[in-house]
Predict the structure of DUF3450 family protein.
Amino acid sequence: MQGLYKFPLKQLTAVATFSFAGLYSLSADVVKDTQHVLSEWISLEKQISEEKSEWIEQKEVLENSIEFMETEIASLEEIIKTAEETASAGEKKRAELDDKKAVLDESTDDITAAVDSYEAKIKELSATWPEAFKDMISTFLKRMPSEEDKETTAVTVRLQNIVAIMTQYDKFQSVVTKDTGIQDVDGETREVTTLYFGFAYAYFIDGTGEYAGYGYPSVSEGWEWVSDASLAEDIGLLVAIYDRATDAKFIGLPAKIVTP
């Protein structure tokens, strides 16, 4: 009996040993695989955590960038709006200025035409003005531009010049003006005192009180001067009255109206 059971026991032992070894080997592989999986899982979790952290940082940067860009866009929109409003106001102001310029240009054209007319008339009349008056306004006469210089002379300057001449003209026309100067009459040159009654008539007398006469505007040019010694006493008295050297009184002297 012992021999009968001996062999099977050995076989059983061998089978058990083999089974235990196989089970041990299988468990070691599972553990090893599990450790590998856990290692990979931990590594993956770490990677996910790092990427999540990096994403959070990038998200904050992006949100800040978006907020900044939104602020910039709003600022640019405000600038564009202001610029459009300014441009609109500027265009409106420019249109108003263009209208005013058109009116001023038209007015300037009218003024320029009037100035041209006055200058031409002054040049025409100046030929009949006495030298005493032309000496008074000689500076203004010289300032009157020639035809070539009109384009380069401001119309305001030309107008001021005309006003100055006409002011002196009105003054000379409305008062008696005394002038002392050289007079050429009948081929003789003498220093005489002349009283001008505006631009209508004048009487002259020299220092001796013997050479005297009268003058009036010429129908062609300048003044006509006529000597008349018989008028010397009355003209001398007239000058004395003007100088207030004697009392005023009526004096009979020849005169006539001449239209140049």
Observations:
- Residues 1-7 have pLDDT under 50 and may be disordered.
